[in-house]
Amino acid sequence: MSSHGEAQPMEAARSGPLTGTAEVPGDKSVSHRSLILGALSVGETRVTGLLEGQDVLDTAKAMQAFGAEVAREGDGTWSIHGVGVGGFAEPDRVIDCGNSGTGVRLIMGAMATSPIAATFTGDASLNKRPMARVTDPLALFGARSYGRSGGRLPLTIIGAADPLPVRYATPVPSAQVKSAVLLAGLNAPGETVVIEAEATRDHTERMLRGFGAEVSTEVTPEGRVITLTGQPELKPQTIAVPRDPSSAAFPVCAALITEGSEVLVPGIGLNPTRAGLFTTLREMGADLAYENEREEGGEPVADLRAKFSPDMKGIEVPPERAASMIDEYPILSVVAANATGRTVMRGVKELRVKESDRIAAMADGLRANGVTVEDGEDWWIVTGNGPGSVAGGATCATHLDHRIAMSFLCLGMAARAPVGIDDAGPIVTSFPVFVPLMERLGAAFRGAGA
Ligand code: S3P
Fold first, then answer.
1. Which of 186, 261, 369, 391 could be 18's S-S partner, Cβ–Cβ 3.0 to 4.6 Å?
2. pLDDT (tens digit, 9 = 90+) per residue, 419-437?
């Protein structure tokens, strides 16, 4: 079942060549943060290029429930009148974050140091995901939380009336945990410090600085030490959201594995904390060029040109790169199935607690379609036999996970027999125009959304 109604089965058949330009939507991480920081500043923040996927729309609704005025003014153009740090009102309804771990975890952080209560819930996928990783550090500020066993949603947080600043070393490499602590630190006096052993995406730090907060990052033997000075007045901003590298990954990878393809994906954010997939693909021998490299809104951006790459080889992906490509392992495994040899992915335990257990979901579907996959708790290995070698012919369970759904549709585009998915519904959470965009390039899809 889709998160929003009936399941929408689809299938992808051998396609191509894929040609043309793929204008992918705005970055999901930056979109959530634009709405939340806009809601925490005083005055009007204007955002262009906002991702209008369901995850972000749920965050927009949540910000309204906490008292901000949030209005859509046109395609991707939004205005937010914020209430200021510490100005959140107590919502009079349950906050439903749908499928979005980023939405719920960041919002829990943002409200946890205000003297209000809020109850959070989500869909069947989100309600299975661990929340203690956020509620534990929020308790150090003085917030109390009451959830289901294992700290799962639905969950109520009673924000701290007299929050204390916190020094917290994140036990898992997670930008969501780091961001929740920093957002909570906004309304605590003094300095809140987050220490992360491995660098995770740094959009929150960059954007907080843009909104006028004092945030410093120091690289020490302990890891990255991020220090935020609490109780700033955040000044509203004009934000142009870059296009999402995690969405760009799908047309790029589909072009690499589909015979005769050449696709241009313009204006992609290449923040180094996000661009690990593209480095990995080039190491595998992908014909992937960065063109027109530039800076936009403080983020490095380039146009990506991807061409069919028949000679890609399996590689060992360095585990220390995992955080910078954590959402891209499902589509990387599809490329690996069309490369020659073993692609070894280690240090990726976090994949098991995403929208689905992504190692299990991909391993099951790849095996059903004739691909050799070995896996353990925090690693997996995909063995490919070259371009066009995947048998296909099976239908894969997507487990309410948008990236699993899109990855298997890409698999089918280069397989000998069509690959099906049980539900394309979740794709709207991050990439609502995926199906028409891929069809315009030359994808052969059949089913509900096609
Ligand atoms: C995100 C962080 C990552 C990522 C998610 C978006 C963010 O999750 O998987 O899609 O915007 O902060 P973790 O922080 O749990 O690794």
1. 261
2. 999 999 999 999 999 999 9
Which amino acid is located at 282 in the chain? R
What does the pLDDT look like over 315-349, one tens digit per residue?
A: 999 999 999 999 999 999 999 999 999 999 999 99
Q: Which residue has the tokens 């060029």?
A: 289
- Residues annotated as catalytic are 327
Question: Alpha-carbon distance 380 to 390, whole Å?
Answer: 18
Question: Packing angle between helix 402-413 and helix 358-368, nearest 10 degrees?
Answer: 30
Q: Is 170 in the pocket of ligand 1 (CB under 6 A)?
A: no
Q: Which mutation among 174, 183, 204, 324 tests ligand 1's pocket best, with the greatest number of atoms within 8 A of CB?
A: 174
pTM across the whole model = 0.97
